[in-house]
Structure formats: C-alpha cells, structure tokens
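[Discussion] Sanity-checking designs against the backbone

I'm trying to build intuition for which residues belong where. Below is a structure token string of 331 positions. I'd appreciate it if someone posts a full sequence so I can compare it with mine line by line.
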C-alpha cells in the first residue's frame, strides 16, 4: 500500500435501506479527518418490487430499483453530512464480490471500506462469503469495520511474520508497517506490533497442505524464540515502533492475534493477505480469513506489492443472458 494521502474512499453499502450504516459512518468520520472523497457503492441481483412498475418488465424493474437505491445512498450521504462531491453508485450485478472488484477497478480508490460479518467455519467451506472473497481479490487496501466510531487516537496492532512462516512475500511486513504509519499520520493513532509463532519445524506438506511438524529440542526452541524476538524488535524499530510495543507470542495466529488485540484494546488490526489460486490455496482459507471472524476490532487488510487479482470482467453476452432468464416474482 502506498503511503500517500488517501484521496478516494469507496464504501460498500450492503443494504442501503438499513438505518444503521457502520461502514458508511466510519468512512464519513475518516473522510472528515483526512479530506478524502467518498464513493458509496451498492450492488444487487434481485430487486425489491416497485409499486408503480409492471412486474413483467425486466428493464423497467431494474432501472426503478437502481433509482430507488441511488436515492437511498444519497439519503445516507446527507444523514452522515458527507461532502457534496460524494458519488453514489448502484449496479445490478452478481456475484456481489465481483461487482465490488469491478467497481474498484473503475473508481481506483485508495481504500475500500466494508462492514464485516461473522461467519462460522462451515460457511467458509461451502459459502461464497463476500468478506473472504474480497480479501483474495480486491486490489486495494480493505478496511472491515465492526463499529461506526473513529477514536481520536486509534490503537493499531500490526501482525507481522518476519520469518515468513506463512509464505508471505518478504517485503509485506514493511508494507504493513508503512500502511500503519500512513494511517497514524492521517487519522492519529499509536502502533504496536505482534508476531505469532509455533515451536515447530515444517517437514513436508500434509493433508490439505497443512504441514507435518515435529517438536524442536528445548535449546533450539529457546534460540528460535530469542532470534524471532530480535527480528520483530528490529522490524519495529526500523519503522519507529519501540521495543516495548513489540510482542512475540506462542500459538496459532488465529488464537494469538484476537487475544493480543483484546489485551491492548486495539481499535484496528492491520494484517497482510496474499491471493492464492486453487489448488495451492488452502481449502479453509488463509490467516486473514481465519482471524477476521474471531477478532472484536476492525481489520485492515494490506496486499503485497504487485498483487494481481483474478479477472472479474463480465462479458456483455452474460449480462444479456441474465436479463433474459431472470423472472421477477410478485410478493
């Protein structure tokens, strides 16, 4: 992520008719503090019935739904006192995550803000959850919000992996800390660093690509912890974070990160994510996907340099086929 000033923030508005808008409220607070332009975006597949439109007219129903939703987005912008240059965009598109990525490529925001929803492990296995798909495919930084308030001095916790145990690109830790610094410069805030480690050696990939491991001897384990602590401290100091704010904790990342965030009363957990194409991508998902459901604070996702998402372009013929086959249902 670039350390430049945030100029454009795009906000995913899942339901423009809901009274509470966590993502839009957080984005409005951010925009007021750093002067960024805001784009409110809503995508839908099956519109709600519109009283003054005949149920047999596909195009009329879709266009009426777009007008209705755009008006709802404008009402949100007015209620949150967003600036006049706020853009309200509505798309009839599906699936939602691909619609969002298509709009991101068109708008080219510095940041995408979305409300995060909790889902269990079963959902991660069998459902196409928008949060996880955006982690894998969205080309810009992501801010998943759990609250609408923005503290005057947010507490940022940056999750690093200096030994690259999770196959992260070597410079991603630097990008994470640079992103946290940019965050702190624009919005205020304090930065802490955490690394989760497990006292094992990877041997060979096992079932579902989970590595087979063997316990290290106690002396080697102590040396490993000392070396890892030194790496984390040096990384933090390189980016202006004192040793007192650098923590090394034993355990799986999905356990350590939520616990450390709670211990520090963190407002935002900053993490890296790397897109992996099947079959190299784990079935259950990467660390960010496992953590996002368990942490209580907001999660800020940073992508590595040169990140390339899969192509989500939707051919015109596919859109026409969708229009031909979709049948509106009266309620």
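Best answer:
Here's mine. Compare freely.
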């Amino acid at each position: 992520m670039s350390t430049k000033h945030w100029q454009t923030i795009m906000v995913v508005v899942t339901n423009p008719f809901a009274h509470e808008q966590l993502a839009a409220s957080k984005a409005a607070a951010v925009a007021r503090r750093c002067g960024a332009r805001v784009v409110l975006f809503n995508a839908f597949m099956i519109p709600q019935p519109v009283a003054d439109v005949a149920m047999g007219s596909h195009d009329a129903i879709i266009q009426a739904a777009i007008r209705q939703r755009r008006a709802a987005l404008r009402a949100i912008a007015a209620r949150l006192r967003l600036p006049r240059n706020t853009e309200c965009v509505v798309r009839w598109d599906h699936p939602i995550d691909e619609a969002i990525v298509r709009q991101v490529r068109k708008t080219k925001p510095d940041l995408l803000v979305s409300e995060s929803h909790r889902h269990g492990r079963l959902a991660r296995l069998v459902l196409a959850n928008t949060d996880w798909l955006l982690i894998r495919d969205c080309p810009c930084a992501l801010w998943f919000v759990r609250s609408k308030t923005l503290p005057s001095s947010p507490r940022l916790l940056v999750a690093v992996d200096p030994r690259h145990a999770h196959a992260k690109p070597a410079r991603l830790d630097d990008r994470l800390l640079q992103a946290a610094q940019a965050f702190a410069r624009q919005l205020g805030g304090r930065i802490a660093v955490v690394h989760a480690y497990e006292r094992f050696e990877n041997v060979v990939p096992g079932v579902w690509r989970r590595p087979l491991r063997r316990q290290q001897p106690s002396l080697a384990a102590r040396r490993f912890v000392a070396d890892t602590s030194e790496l984390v401290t040096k990384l933090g100091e390189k980016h202006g974070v004192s040793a007192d704010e650098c923590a090394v904790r034993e355990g799986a990342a999905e356990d350590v990160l939520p616990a450390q965030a709670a211990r520090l009363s963190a407002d935002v957990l900053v993490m890296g994510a790397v897109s992996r194409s099947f079959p190299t991508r784990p079935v259950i998902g990467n660390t960010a996907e496992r953590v996002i459901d368990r942490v209580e604070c907001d999660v800020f996702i940073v992508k590595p340099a040169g990140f390339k998402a899969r192509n989500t372009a939707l051919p015109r013929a596919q859109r026409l086929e969708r229009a031909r086959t979709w049948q509106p249902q009266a309620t």
